[in-house]
UniProtKB/TrEMBL annotation:
Assigned EC number: 1.6.5.11
Organism phylogeny: Bacteria, Bacillati, Bacillota, Negativicutes, Acidaminococcales
Residues the entry annotates as binding [2Fe-2S] cluster: C89, C94, C130, C134
Gene3D superfamilies tied to this protein: Glutaredoxin, NADH-quinone oxidoreductase subunit E
One Gene Ontology MF term: metal ion binding
Source species, domain of life: Bacteria
Cofactor(s) annotated in UniProt: [2Fe-2S] cluster
PANTHER family: BIFURCATING [FEFE] HYDROGENASE GAMMA SUBUNIT, NADH-QUINONE OXIDOREDUCTASE, E SUBUNIT
Family affiliation: Belongs to the complex I 24 kDa subunit family.
CDD domains on file: TRX_Fd_NuoE (cd03064)
Cofactor info, note text: Binds 1 [2Fe-2S] cluster.
EC class (word): oxidoreductase
Protein name: NADH-quinone oxidoreductase subunit NuoE
InterPro entries documented for this protein: NADP_DH_HndA-like (IPR028431), NuoE-like (IPR002023), NuoE_dom (IPR042128), NuoE_N (IPR041921), Thioredoxin-like_sf (IPR036249)
Amino acid sequence: MVDKRCSCCGGENPEKVQIDAILARYQGKKGSLIPILQEVQALYNYLPKDALEYIAASTGTPIAQIYGVVTFYSQFHLNPRGRNIIRVCQGTACHVRGGKVILQTIEKELGIKAGHTTEDLRFTLETVACIGACGLAPVMQVNEDTHGRLTPDKLSAILAKYQ
Ligand code: FES
């Protein structure tokens, strides 16, 4: 069983205590693995390996089964995510209106490729096929905000709004 003590100070690890609270709410309930994983992911913004091991040990679920679920559903993330999620549309309408240049400009500005997260965890950069705002192409979303009719010169000012 994973130690609930912090490895650096020996005190109670507050995140493990929070995981315990989540597990307690679902104790004895069938089909609760996915909601448990969703709540734990909400704690960390991703699913750290030691959190998955802790869930496995605490619930008696084989770790392979947990990884099977986590890797099957795209909603789960095994790597740290940024505080702000950028989704640059690469659907057809956005592609023909310069979506690729928008993506390349953001990649250059942030120093990361699509699918990665900046070292300071400020941004995660992703691509999407269509976000249903084709009339505003080229489009990107940052968190819940949609930014349309993008041009490369608008991007710095938009990204600067997100800390
Ligand atoms: S193709 Fe980009 S919003 Fe539809």
